[in-house]
Amino acid sequence: MKKIAVMGFGVVGSGVVELCDKNAASIRRRAGVDVQVKYILDLRDFPESPYGEMVIHDFGTILNDPEIAVVAEVMGGLEPAFRYSKELLCAGKSVVTSNKELVAQKGAELLRLAKEHNVNYLFEASVGGGIPIIRPLHMCLAANEINEIAGILNGTTNFILTKMIREGMSFAEALALAQQLGYAERNPAADIEGTDACRKICILASLAYGKHVYPQEVHTEGISNITLRDVQYAGDWGGVIKLIGRARRLPDGRLSVMVSPAFISHESQLATVDDVFNGILVRADATGDVVFYGKGAGKLPTASAVVGDVIDCVKAEHTIQSLSWSDSAADTVCDYRQTPACFYLCCRGAKAVQAVRNVFGSVRFLHREGAPAEEAAFITPEGTEAQLAAQIKQLESGGTEILSAIRVLDY
Ligand code: HSE
């Protein structure tokens, strides 16, 4: 029998406890022993819960109990989760987590501590909810060079975009529903502004390329400026708008990592990833494209990944070597303005079409029903982001107003 502790009894924590209970027999078969929750750490009491008696308020109880070998940290946030995780690893206990903020900021340090104490720090649940992506990336695809990763990594924003496009639901209504279903972050700005997707692409890039990619190095844009007008133009172009996190290794060894909304062709496998689903495309040199798809948020999908990690920790006798990356220098990620891009631009002005031709030459104009005469939407030729920014400025200084600028990607 292995006893574990769960830190945090929110959406994911309660899912972890329920899953350990409900699937105890299959977990025993796979772990080789019974796995039982002994403690649940939370600030609150849960007298109504069938698991209420396991709730404790003192972290020291878990830290000092030799019977506890594995702890699930599903509290979220940097502190006290960081301090607790460090103390547990140093005490020789394995830690598993869904805490993407912590892994994205402190992963290199926590992985190093796990190695030093011959235990594990696992975080399958931190990216893609119930989708297996961390383990496939460092185990099943271990023989490959990873050329590129691109994914729809945030369930809440994908849910909101889908509801707006398919059902004409307002942004606020769709967000409220996502919160009700337990998809959104405590502060949903982290979803809407792309921060959550940024943390996740940082984790994937760190794992794929072996160097810690910090969120503050990654250019990040959210979905709060996307309008139904943009959605219509995307349809005319032949695709949809998705929030995409992407990472790629450049020939000089640096990384290009970014999060932004993007036009994605209907032909792309990512275009059909709707609702709360996430889709992650890994472009590897031996396999070619591999796509992972499933529920990227929610109580039981995320708990499934946490408990899967608990089972691996129970079975592991040593630190899993392939799950690691080293700390990195500040110039690991290149300045996004140096990367090549194409944009969809929507602009307004008395002579918008002529102004666009003057600046960009021959371009593909897009159409939508009911567009005002002064509106022009088109796809720019490819240039570096810096060149395109200069061209956009040129348009603006000639009196043309830019209404939207969204990247066009070819996954
Ligand atoms: N808020 C996150 C999302 C939860 O919507 O994807 C899962 O990480």
Detailed description of the structure:
With 411 residues, the protein is of the alpha/beta class. It has 14 helices and 17 strands. The strands form two sheets. Strands 7, 8, 9, 10, 11, 12, 13, 14, 15, 16 and 17 form an eleven-stranded mixed beta sheet that branches. A hairpin with a 3-residue loop joins strand 11 and strand 12. The longest helix is centred in the first third of the chain and has 17 residues. The radius of gyration is 23 Å and the shape is elongated. The termini are far apart. The mean pLDDT is 96. The chain binds L-homoserine. L-homoserine binds next to helix 7.
Distance between the termini: 47 Å
- The count of DSSP E runs of length 2 or more, i.e. the number of strands, is 17
What structural category do the secondary elements indicate?
Answer: alpha/beta
SS strand fraction? 15-25%
Task: Provide the residue-averaged pLDDT.
Answer: 96
Helical proportion? 25-40%
Q: Tell me, what's the shape?
A: elongated
